[in-house]
Amino acid sequence: MSIGHESGVWPSLGETLHVLTFQGGFNTSVVLVGVTLLGVAAGLVGTFAVLRRRALMSDTLSHATLPGITLAFIVAVMLGASGRSLPVLLAGAALSGILGVLTVQFISRHTRLPEDAAMGAVLSVFFGLGFVMLSYIQTMATGEQGGIGKFIYGQTATMGVTDATVIGIVALGTTLASLLLFKEFRLVCFDPDYATVLGWRISLIDLAMMALVVAVTVVGLRAVGLILVIALVVIPPAAARFWTERLWVMAVVAALLGGLSGYLGAAASALFPRFPAGGIIVLVAGFFFLLSLLFAPARGVLAAGFRQLRLRRDIASQHLLRGLFEAGEAGGGEVVPAAALRSRVHGPAARLALARLTWQGLIARRPDGLRLTPKGREEALRITRNHRLWEQFLMAYADLAPSHVDHSADLVEHVLSSDMVEELERQLKARGRLPRHAGPPPSPHPLASGA
Amino acid sequence: MSFLAGHSAEPSSPLSSRPEHRPGSPLAVHGLTVAYNKKPVLWDVEWDAPEGRLIAIVGPNGAGKSTLVKACLGLVPVVSGQVAFFGSSLRRSRRLVGYVPQRGSVDWDFPVSALEVVTMGRYGMLGWCRPVTRRHREAALACLDQVGMADYAGRQISQLSGGQQQRVFLARALAQEAQLYFMDEPFAGVDAATERAIVDVLKRLKENGRTVIVVHHDLQTVRDYFDEVLLLNMRVVAAGPVDEVFTIENLRKTYGARLALLEQASSALADLARVS
């Protein structure tokens, strides 16, 4: 299906579109569909594997497939069969991959070695064994050695229709199975002990999950390669987690990102047949991961930073309003010189707050300082009242000295919700510390502002 | 009932008060021994939980309170002994047993909502691969309402306070509609509103004839909240109605010298002294 350029020249836009819209020939289209389905299945199964903290187990699994692949190749060639038969090689891969996982489980069950150490040991020993067998294969008198390399780095461009169909069918089956077991996987990932109490056999559900990971990993070997196939299981779910707080949304997003990575990766591999498909697929997935990490509104880095800034701005706003109010209370004039507020309000968040309060019409700027507007006074009154109520509460219940309550109250007042204020009022009323008027109680400590 | 016959032949421990096993008791523990890494945590525990009562398991840190609950539920391996639920095996009684684990036992950053967690209490009634139906979701919502958390149904669980998370766990157990409930330290570190909600639920469960076994650490509230108490320190020190068993003498036996160090416990003792 080599429609790309051996020389590595960029394909034309027309060629690219042809491949992407499934017009690049029957073979290319089947491979594209197969690898896309593989990405969907890997994203879905990976969601549960990641939440069950089995991500590294699938890496052990994929590396442990190498001796199985090589042994299957050697046996097939010795028996006079073709060393290129995908089902034979994948059967070998699955067997040695499962053996690797079982070895890890045996070690961590019967020794006190931490599981990650057991995985590191098993992964490297299996991989090393595979490598030694690989060099033996190079000396064998058969012309089929070239096929083995594809399992290490991944190759989609030379994949045949049969191979792609096998991958697609297994991927589809895996997808269906993980949808059917969604409820079981959700509970076992969240609270396995509770699942046991409900009478579920955790080991059986874990076995089903591991079987699905094995299926995805093993059929993914041919397309992505055994070094990188873990990426397809781990990266899309990890990226999806940034977008949502819902498991099913996470699963859908992971499946979409996985599918898209597979699709774009396979298309790129068709256009640049000399590039390893695995690397391209993983780079595409990694690009989505980076985007999610930075820009996802639910848990992304920028969104978190933005929320932090907004919180700081709100706190600065409240400080500013209360500062102006207390300055008036302490006998200063209506207009407070900006310098008098500097101890309370400084930094970028404060400048942002001041700009916003002015824009909202709560604070008026005067040539000689700042002044609360009537609307701003109302808001400042409410904020000051909450602050003083909280101070009263701390003095009543936490036995704080009046000179210390200001600072402690500052830390909490900004997160007071309206029902917490009501509760505060109720408790203070019971102690006879709530003022009868609706305004703030007098401050328990001397006010610094206006000075 | 084979273990009943074997029971009389066993030498009785001087510390344990051994009530007769009643057939059909919601929980009958016989000769239960549990060890972690060869170090015994529970030693030959013998206990019958009376039906329809609120029962506190009380004892010092490391006494094996949580371990007893987990061993009964098959969550930790048992060295020897048997546990019977309603005169039957655990496997056959799963549907009758509800569980509120310690809040710290799960990752609260998990991507599920409060309602989805409560719905998990219904999973035991659903077969494998069967989806959650509307009927079960509505039942779960009603349970959330019972603990005063209906307004938080759609909240992701990490956005709840510790007390609210505890109430979600309680609602999940309620959704199981069990006959016997185990609660592992439900009052630990919760706010006043949650404490009230838990006490309300306990009362309601008792009114409906359910048995509730609660691992409890606050000696001062034992008398107010519970009918029965099991004093545990690796083995059963005493078990029975609070009025009879929750005595200074028995608490001394349970807590040993450490009791004097616990201000909370000593004030509870002062309360007791005043009563008696």
From TrEMBL, chain A:
CDD domains according to UniProt: TM_ABC_iron-siderophores_like
Spans traversing the lipid bilayer: 30-51, 63-82, 88-107, 119-137, 157-182, 194-215, 221-240, 247-272, 278-302
Organism for this UniProt entry: Marinimicrococcus flavescens
One GO term (biological process): response to zinc ion
Iron dependent repressor metal binding and dimerisation domain segment(s): 373-430
Protein family per UniProt: Belongs to the ABC-3 integral membrane protein family.
Family annotation (Pfam families): ABC-3, Fe_dep_repr_C
PANTHER family given in the database record: ABC-TRANSPORTER METAL-BINDING PROTEIN, METAL TRANSPORT SYSTEM MEMBRANE PROTEIN CT_069-RELATED
Keywords: Cell membrane, Membrane, Transmembrane, Transmembrane helix, Transport
Compartments reported by the entry: Cell membrane
Membrane topology qualifier: Multi-pass membrane protein
Domain of life: Bacteria
Name under which the protein is recorded: Metal ABC transporter permease
Stretch list, region Disordered: 431-451
GO terms assigned for molecular function: DNA-binding transcription factor activity; protein dimerization activity; transition metal ion binding
GO annotation, cellular component aspect: ATP-binding cassette (ABC) transporter complex
TrEMBL record, chain B:
Cited InterPro entries: AAA+_ATPase (IPR003593), ABC_transporter-like_ATP-bd (IPR003439), ABC_transporter-like_CS (IPR017871), Metal_Ion_Import_ABC (IPR050153), P-loop_NTPase (IPR027417)
One Gene Ontology molecular-function label: ATP hydrolysis activity
Region of interest (Disordered), ranges: 1-23
Domain of life: Bacteria
Sequence ranges assigned to domain ABC transporter in this UniProt record: 27-259
Pfam families per record: ABC_tran
Keywords, in A-Z order: ATP-binding, Ion transport, Nucleotide-binding, Transport, Zinc, Zinc transport
CDD domains hit by this protein: ABC_Metallic_Cations
BP terms from Gene Ontology: zinc ion transport
SUPFAM superfamilies per record: P-loop containing nucleoside triphosphate hydrolases (SSF52540)
Annotated family: Belongs to the ABC transporter superfamily.
Record protein name field: Metal ABC transporter ATP-binding protein
